[in-house]
């Protein structure tokens, strides 16, 4: 999968602003880890991530849009499914037939899911400073090209559903944001390092890690815990320290 050729400008951020950015990202990362849902990993399926990155590439969007869309999709689906599954069970799907109620919910989501995925990409494009916005006309044409007949009204309703589900809070950090922030620190601390070239390399590595996330994280976990079969507690323990150390090194 090829990567879009978007250029990042490094070494243009002041130390004070970069320090504030790192502190903010570190705090938000900690908050996210403390409130992470147990079903989050199921929504980072390789096929879904690849689908989003392919859409981003096909529409020639900034790679940042794709990673942002993955975050929006995960957050929305966790909230949406939780609301649907914990809402009042209909009379015909009461205690004796709860499975049918869940199956009906998942069947309904399955039909809407491709549009929800695309709407997350479209919303992410509207938040990007370095990418053109996906208009509804472009969206309808693209979806038609992949075999989905969708009206502009349907797209609008899908976007509104996601916006309301996320309570209009769309500015969530994504993996590429963290990578670019750490590269900015490296460029500040080591002016001779070709961070622009490293950025291209990091994008390829990040894409690989995102697509092979389960295997990569499992291997890292076994290495850090020195345990062939890590416990459930070990699997749920993550360390958000890299940003903290980056911020300390920047101050020095």
UniProtKB/TrEMBL annotation:
One of its GO terms (biological process) is reciprocal meiotic recombination. The lineage of its organism: Eukaryota, Metazoa, Chordata, Craniata, Vertebrata. This is Cyclin N-terminal domain-containing protein 1 isoform 2. InterPro entries: Cyclin-like_sf. GO terms for cellular component: site of double-strand break.
């Amino acid at each position: 999968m090829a990567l879009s050729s978007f250029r990042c400008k490094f070494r243009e951020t002041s130390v004070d602003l970069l320090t504030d950015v790192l502190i903010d990202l570190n705090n938000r990362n900690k908050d996210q880890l403390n409130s992470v849902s147990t079903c989050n990993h199921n929504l980072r399926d390789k096929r879904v991530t690849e689908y989003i990155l392919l859409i981003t590439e096909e529409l020639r969007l900034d790679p940042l849009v794709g990673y942002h869309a993955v975050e929006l999709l995960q957050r929305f689906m966790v909230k949406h499914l939780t609301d649907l599954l914990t809402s009042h069970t209909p009379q015909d799907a009461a205690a004796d037939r709860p499975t049918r109620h869940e199956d009906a919910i998942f069947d309904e989501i399955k039909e809407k899911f491709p549009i929800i995925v695309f709407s997350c990409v479209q919303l992410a494009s509207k938040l990007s400073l370095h990418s053109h916005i996906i208009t509804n006309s472009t969206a309808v044409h693209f979806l038609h090209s992949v075999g989905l007949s969708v009206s502009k009204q349907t797209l609008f309703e899908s976007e509104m559903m996601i916006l309301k589900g996320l309570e209009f809070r769309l500015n969530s950090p994504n993996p590429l944001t963290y990578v670019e922030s750490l590269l900015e620190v490296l460029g500040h601390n080591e002016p001779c390092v070709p961070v622009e070239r490293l950025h291209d390399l990091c994008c390829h590595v990040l894409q690989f890690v995102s697509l092979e996330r389960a295997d990569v994280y499992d291997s890292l976990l076994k290495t850090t815990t020195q345990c062939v079969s890590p416990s459930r507690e070990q699997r749920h323990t993550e360390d958000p320290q890299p940003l903290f150390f980056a911020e300390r090194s920047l101050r020095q």
